[in-house]
Amino acid sequence: MAAVIPDLKKFRRVVVKVGSSLLVDSQAGTLHAEWLSALVDDLSDFKKRGASILVVTSGAIALGRTVLKLPKGELQLEESQAAAAVGQIALARIWAESLAKIGLTAGQVLLTLGDTEERRRYLNARETIGKLIELGAVPVINENDTVATNEIRYGDNDRLAARVATMASADLLILLSDIDGLYSAPPGTNKDAKLIPVVSRITYEIEAMAGDAGSELSRGGMKTKIEAGKIATSAGTHMVIASGRKLHPLRAIEKNAPCTWFLTPASPVTARKKWIAGALEAKGIIHIDAGAVAALRSGKSLLPAGVVKIEGLFARGDAVIVRGPDGGEIARGIVAYDRDDALKIIGKNSKRIEGILGYAGRSEMIHRDDLAMAGE
Ligand code: GLU
Q1: How many Å apart are CA 345 and CA 363, to the nearest integer?
Q2: Check whether domain 8-266 has CATH 3.40.1160.10, yes or no
Q3: Is the CB of 59 within 6 Å of ligand 1?
Q4: pLDDT at residue 113, as a whole number
Q5: Shortest-distance Cα residue to atom 9 of ligand 1
Q6: 141 bridge partner residues
Q7: pLDDT in tens, 157-202
Q8: Concatenated DSSP letters for 46-114?
Q9: Which amino acid residue places its CA nearest to atom 4 of ligand 1?
Q10: CATH 2.30.130.10: does it fit domain 273-373?
Q11: Strands 282-288 and 371-373, how do they pair?
């Protein structure tokens, strides 16, 4: 059965990743302003359809290295960090001004590997990004290159964009690149190479096709794009790799320009819940009363009022097991409070949280988005 290529108009939350070589002229170190303005026009189509947009943008190092007159070629880590420190200011302003032209407010978010891989920091970053979207702003995201050292860096924005897409429960990730998709063999060296329009599953054969399509400015080649595809599709996000070399690259995808779609079998919510249910090690147990069991089973969040006892030394953002009055496992979830704070508010009405803890925490002990019911 031939896979159906999704319609761009259907997506509700879209992450667009822009590579350095598209945004910045590698020789002059200047912005491709006409290209960016055409891209922003395309983004306004999404906005008009009521979709939320997130931008993951490279270009800080490429912009900053010219200003600092750093040599061409591979930079030392400290040089990249310095270049990013200078270039990120310009990059953020470029996006803020460009998005303002279509009536959108940009919010800069700089992330490192730890912000997406450690659960507590993941939750924090997710809340900030979620809030920006809720308030109608566009998160403009890059790696925090100035503080990222080799051990704690993504190093390429393809995988960062995929993590952001799964974190924001986006339904689509668009990787705009200097190549129009995945080829059966490296197209530069093999004239029989064919573009693969749809990848329904990332098999060993697909990975072997990746080769290397890196350029001097951007770190990501096809390999990191396939890695991004794995992250995105296993968490319920479709991904498309398309060429950004022409003006209006998103409209081109809509008009069936050559590109490669990586399709996900899962929907964002079930994938996230699968992640909660399967991938995390539980740090504690939360015992709840019969009323809370019924509430959870009807799709509600777990409030402190329904908790009767807690066990274990968990911190905010840890995975916990939720048990009912008979000790049976009802659900697993990500808890919103550290053990000590949780102890103080169990059995209490959520309105009293601020009074008891001295800060306005979440009203839920575990939000329903962070709960995976047993047997689901
Ligand atoms: N974060 C880097 C920058 O903004 C780019 C990384 C990449 O191109 O993948 O310059």
Answers
A1: 10
A2: yes
A3: yes
A4: 86
A5: 156
A6: 56, 109
A7: 999 999 999 889 899 999 999 889 999 887 777 888 899 999 998 8
A8: HHHTT-EEEEEE--HHHHHHHHTTPPSSPPPHHHHHHHHHHHHHHHHHHHHHHHHTTT--EEEEEE-HH
A9: 58
A10: yes
A11: unpaired
